[in-house]
User: What shape does this take?
Amino acid sequence: MSRDQWEMLCDGCGRCCLHKFEDEDSGEIFFTDVACRYLDEETCSCSHYNSRQTYVPNCLRIDSDWGDKFNWLPSTCAYRLLYEKKSLHDWHPLVSGNKESVHLAGISVRGRTFSDADINNEQTYLHVIEWVN
Ligand code: SF4
Ligand code: SF4
Assistant: This one.
């Protein structure tokens, strides 16, 4: 798969740009509704995608050799589904043929987040949510 094809697998949900916590003992991931300040709330895409590590140095580039790290992604994420040898969901734009379907199906984070620019870092734990995973 070329890099462009790999990038096209992204469904545009924006869930990976939410802050999360990891249980050190179990490895369980807990998502919050606090999003990176560079996530465009309407499109659910990064407003500085190609230069994002200039803005957020620890923003990761998803690669096929991630192995166990795919667990950090939401269970709906196309990259995680591929790693787990599962099919894409009906609402995935590559399946539906409609870029809006990820939003229409209520999978994207559109309209459901707070920017980390507005949230005290120490209060982030109060924003743990259950609608991801
Ligand atoms: S969670 Fe996966 S599919 Fe959704 S925006 Fe992030 S990389 Fe793309
Ligand atoms: S820099 Fe962009 S891709 Fe990285 S977490 Fe923030 S919004 Fe998401």
Q: What stands out?
A: Residues 3-127 form one domain. The chain has one domain: 3-127. Helices lie at 3-8, 52-55, 78-83, 93-96, 101-104.
